[in-house]
Amino acid sequence: IATVDDMNAMGTYATAAAGTNDRYDGYFILTADLDFESDGLKYTNAISNGAGNAFYGTIDGRGHTIKNLYITTEAVTGIDAWNRYFIGKFGAGATVKNLAFTNARCGDGDGKKSSDTFFTASVGGTYNLENIYMELSVGADWGRYAFGASQQNGFKAKNVIVKILNDTATTGCSALASNMVVNDGYLQGVYFVCSA
Questions:
Q1: Would residue 37 be called left, alpha or beta, if left means φ above 0 and alpha means ψ between -120 and 50 degrees?
Q2: What pTM was computed for the model?
Q3: pLDDT tens, 15-34?
């Protein structure tokens, strides 16, 4: 993955890697930093669709950064659950690692939507987050999180830092961390840095 276009084409590549139309798979390596320029219309990766197939593969950032990624249901008008997540659904054993996100945004901020979540639910088992750094702004309404309530016991996280860039009703550390409490035993070196 060297360009934004490559990232958006992941669904096609991952379907081919899986050899079937009912799941996504493959091992994807970032070879450069990517910049989505804070434009929600620019993230059109089919894997971001929560109504689609689960991703069972690996995204290895190799220390690169994804900048200005905008996650919101509003991004593609008329397609419910599209671009609401970084990955729409994780399959058991899927992994995102060695990756940074700077100036990421989750939710439109106007209170209309309540389900935009950067890392979302697993399907039939846990997925893995390793060596992740995030700088994230979240929307003003309930349900916009780095990790949401439906992710409880859904992932294992190791060496993850989430820095919240804005101050809204859902950015308090207690609100963010509450959805991770039942992940006891699955968390190693996970930190939230909050504005309030």
A1: left
A2: 0.84
A3: 999 999 889 999 999 999 99
